[in-house]
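Researcher: Structure prediction, please.
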Amino acid sequence: MSQPSTRATGLALLVIGALMIANGAWYTPLMLTNPAQRMSEYGGEWPFVTSQTIAFVVLVALALAVPRLRQVRSRTGRTLPGWLITVLTVAVMLQMATVYVQAFVVPFLAEVAPAALDVEAIDVFALSMMAIWVLWLVTWVVVAVVGVVRRLMGIPAAILIAFGALSTPVLGPGGAALVGAGLVVWCLTRILPAARARAADATLSADVVPA
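Model: Predicted structure follows.
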C-alpha cells in the first residue's frame, strides 16, 4: 500500500462525504415539509429530480471509491475484511440503481403516464427499494462496528455512519447526509492523518544515512 494511494482514497471519500452532506442539507427540509403524498405528485418536481440526480452522481463516485478502502489500514496494520468491502460495493451499486430510477425513470413517467406511478403494481418497486435499503443500512452498520473494533475508525464517525444508514429509509438524502458526515469525520480523524504520519515516517527513513 502506497501512502499517496491512501491519501487519494481519503481525499476522494472526503469530497464524496461533503457532497452527501450538501445534498441532504438542502433537500431534506423540503421533503419533510412537502405535503404531496403520491409519487406522481412529487416525482416530476425539480427539487426531487435535482436531489436524486446529485445523489446518483455521488453514488457512482462512491462505488468507485469503496474498493480502495482495502488500502486503508489502522496503526496496527489491520484493514476491513475483503468480503465486507465487496458487500459494501454491491450495496452501493444497488442503491445507485434505485436512485437512477428515481432520478430519470420516475420523472419521465410523472410527465407521460403519472397514473402508472400510483397503481398498486408500483408497490413491487417500493418493496425492491426497501430490500436494497436494508442491505445498505445493515452493511454500513457492520462497516462502522468492524471499523471501530479494528481501530480503523473512531466512535464519532462510526455513530454518524450507522445512524445515517439506519435513518435512510425515513430521511432519504438526510440519512445519506449523516453517512457523508461520518465519512468526512473518518477521513479527517483517521485516514488522512495516518497517511501524513506514514509520509513523515518515510521521509525520516530516507534521511537516515547508514554509518
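Model: The CA atoms of residues 66 and 89 lie 6 Å apart.
Researcher: Thanks, that helps.
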